[in-house]
Amino acid sequence: MKDKIAEIKKNSIEEITNCKNLKDLNELRVKYLGKKGELTIILRGMGTVSPEERPIIGSLVNELREEIVNLIQEKEKEFKNQELLKRLESESIDVTEPSKKVDLGTLHPITRTIEEVEEIFLGMGYQIADGPEVEKAIYNFDKLNTPPDHPARDVQDTFYITDDIVLRSQTSPVQARVMENQKPPIKIICPGAVYRSDSVDATHSPVFHQVEGLVVDKNISMADLKGTLEMFAQKCLGENTKIRFRPHHFPFTEPSAEADVSCFVCGGKGCRVCKGEGWIELLGCGEVHPNVLKNCGIDPEVYSGFAFGFGVERIAMAKYGIEDMRLLFENDIRFLKQF
Ligand code: DAH
User: How distant, in Å, are the alpha carbons of 203, 283, 319, 323 from that of 273?
Assistant: First the structure.
């Protein structure tokens, strides 16, 4: 029995030491330690060993077993390390190799225009406000002094979700939301999408974007409004841009005006962009109507304000020389890549 163990010891050590890969190693594990392995068979045969010899043989077998287990573990580690090294080598990254070209997108001209406008107004101390696109009719109309029989409330212009909820047709409801939540002085702009039931053509889209502006404080006049708009127009469209007011009507301002800018292409002489007029219509504006201030909890005897609202598409089209609004919504990469 002792000889047999010595033989197993010699063979197993030799075979494990010379073993070349994990698969062979596993086979050796089975060969010596498995259920029908050589060492196991010896343990099973202990019954035939005399009682005096049994502990000696037992401890010999156990020692050998431990030795084989350790050897196999070491060998296993060795193989796994080799494998890892091989993998590291084959998967190594050549950081000097030129990279594949990543096709980067560009900002959409609407996004760019909004960011530019925000930048200009932030520079003038304005904050950027936000409001829901699915809006209560009371904010879109009533609080803005637009009574139930006003033509702008007509289903022909406004998308109604229910009788009381609409897709906002203008960014002006944000004025009311801000005034209800903030005490003067207020100085905000609010850019965002608005919805009207217009059919699509070169200058109309059922979804477009506006930027609303609102300033409320003591003694805010039309002169402040004009100065602000002029400053904005010069920064956005060119430093020689002039502003002119034409009288107009909006329910939420009194007096109301439409503001035009001198054509930034021809400087006012008349060209294709301004259709020979020398002026381009820019926005609606005015002094905030006292009823609107009152509806939003601000005392019109103490405070006054101005407001304005303009279409982002119109400005983007003018700035970038885009002649058809549909281009802005078709998302044709060939078009968008130009910006
Ligand atoms: N909300 C108006 C529109 O969509 C634009 C406008 C006009 C906004 C006058 C104003 C304003 O804040 O004072 O046509």
Answer: 14, 17, 10, 9
From 157, 225, 250, 306, the mutation candidate for ligand 1 (largest count of ligand atoms within 8 A of CB) is 250
The per-residue pLDDT for range 206-247, each reduced to its tens digit, is 999 999 999 999 999 999 999 999 999 999 999 999 999 999
First to last CA, the chain: 89
Higher-scoring residue by pLDDT: 114, 155:
114
Superfamily for the 109-336 domain: Bira Bifunctional Protein; Domain 2 (3.30.930.10)
Would you say 249 and 240 are in contact if contact means Cβ atoms under 8 Å apart?
A: no
User: CA-based angle 187:129:127, to the nearest 5?
Assistant: 40
Torsion 242-245-251-254 (CA) sign = positive
Cis peptide before 185 (omega within 30 of 0): yes
pTM of this structure: 0.72
Residue with tokens 């009788």: 163
Q: Where are the domains of the chain?
A: 2-90, 109-336
Ligand 1 and 212: CB distance under 6 A? yes
Single out the residue of 98, 284, 313 nearest to residue 191, CA to CA. 313
Which residue, by CA, sits nearest to atom 2 of ligand 1?
309
Establish how many alpha carbons lie within 13 A of residue 144's alpha carbon, considering only the half-sphere containing its beta carbon. Answer: 28
